Amino acid sequence: MAHDREVLRMIWEGQIGICFQADNEEIVGIRPEPFYLMVSRLSYLPLVTDKVRKYFTRYIAAEHQDGAAWFDFNGTPLRLHYPIGVLYDLLHPEEDGTPWCITIHFSKFPEETLVKLNTKELLESHYLACLKEADVLKHRGLVISAMQKKDHNQLWLGLINDKFDQFWAVNRRLMEPYSDQESFKNIPVRFYHDDDFTYIQKLISPLNETGQKKNLADLMAELSTPVRKAVGFRTHGIGLPEETQLQWMSEHMSYPDNFLHLSVEYENT
Amino acid sequence: MSDSMTWLEFLSQAKGFLAISSKLNDSWQLIEKDKHEPNTFLKYAQKVKYKDELINVEYHIVYSISYQVPMLYLQAHRSDGGLLDIEATWNLFMPEMPRSDLYQMLTQMEHPVLFRPFMTLHPCRTCEILSQFGKQSTNLILTFISIYGPYVKLELSNSYGLINEENEKYEMKM
């Protein structure tokens, strides 16, 4: 069970400073000052940008004001359904400590690149689909399907309103091994390598053949091939010690979608 | 009868399905991005009439690593190249279903091989449904498309089932 509460707290409280800029081509008249905001690493862009949208709406042409908002960093459109921390870590802005400058757009939504989750309702449906998928991996879907609609609502409201206790009161049930088991069936995890937003998914058991709990060193061996070796993992902006157990990681370092999002560093052999 | 399938089972059944399709001069294709799991999928394209417009629909049958079942992804484009959003897709395929079911049935997600936005039918109960329909020797991908396809105007001709049965009889004699 996820019992290291201080770790859960620290992960929950991780924030990123963002500097939002307008798209010059959408501005009519005076150019607005940028808009600064501290946002949770665990949240999603459409959930934290109500104020940002409202602020910029005054400066843009009337015909674009109701458009689906989207964002880019240096020309790369930002996935609306990836947690903000994952986006930030993948694009690794050079100087940590300075705000991350991204541009907000109200027109020309890149339909062929971004999943269009421009309303909270759509994002919620996508989020629940991720939770279900994660639970299929952990518990064959038995825990989430035994939950009620109000539990799903509580998770979602906990996340969007930044209420740690409300969220974890339900999430802890998803983060416990099933009945008499000591670990999950598989670890919900996505491996990122490049900054192109593609990832690899595999069935990763938390236990090795002899029933021992696997750690990150075991995972490195599992991901390595004759031509390249996995040599390190990062998530939430931190490098991870290789003795960290996978089961513990899954319980404590997963994003609210219940997946671990790990950046893998490789070396050619 | 197992209620899920491994990646290798998916690959072999996809190839079996493709063989039936070519026998029938149907136009399913097997697309291989690379050799890794789950980067090979079945693809089919057709035009669907909606009001006065012809919509190009592309269907992909992709293996889900998490659910260990096939999943149906689709993308629908207008003749001017515009992509149908979730509401428009719903209106195209399921206008008679209650609107409240929309988010339980259809989600726009990232295609797990191409990483582009596609609509998908929720896979939650696929295992259960396949285990009810599938006979030991039946091609599960054929069963899957026959069950889920009609929700999105993807209808296989009856000949698929007949050829599949013939193949099975032949295999049994061997």
Q: What's the SSE blueprint?
A:
The complex is a heterodimer of chains A (269) and B (174).
Chain A: H1 5-13, E1 15-22, E2 35-40, H2 45-48, H3 50-57, E3 70-73, E4 76-77, H4 84-91, E5 100-105, H5 120-139, H6 142-146, H7 149-160, H8 164-174, E6 189-192, E7 199-200, H9 216-223, E8 228-235, E9 238-239, H10 246-253, E10 260-268
Parallel strand pairs in A: 1-5, 6-10
Antiparallel strand pairs in A: 1-2, 3-4, 3-5, 6-7, 8-9, 8-10
Helix pairs in contact in A: 7-8
Chain B: H1 7-23, E1 29-32, E2 40-50, E3 53-64, E4 69-77, H2 86-93, H3 102-105, E5 106-110, E6 117-121, H4 126-133, H5 140-148, H6 159-173
Antiparallel strand pairs in B: 1-2, 2-3, 3-4, 4-6, 5-6
What distinguishing features does this structure have?
heterodimer; A: 269 residues; alpha+beta; Ubiquitin-like (UB roll); 5-stranded mixed sheet; 10 helices; 35% helix; globular; B: 174 residues; Yope Regulator, Chain: A; 6-stranded antiparallel sheet; 6 helices; 6 strands; 26% strand
Structure in words:
The complex is a heterodimer of chains A (269) and B (174). The longest helix of chain A has 20 residues, at 120-139. In chain A, α7 crosses α8. Chain A contains ten helices and ten strands. The model of chain A has no long low-confidence stretch (mean pLDDT 93). Chain A is α+β, with helices and mostly antiparallel strands. With 174 residues, chain B is α+β, with helices and mostly antiparallel strands. Chain B starts with 6 loop residues before the first helix and ends with a helix. Chain B has helices spanning 7-23, 86-93, 102-105, 126-133, 140-148, 159-173, and strands at 29-32, 40-50, 53-64, 69-77, 106-110, 117-121. In chain B, a hairpin with a 2-residue loop joins β2 (40-50) and β3 (53-64). The interface between A and B is medium-sized, with 28 and 20 residues.
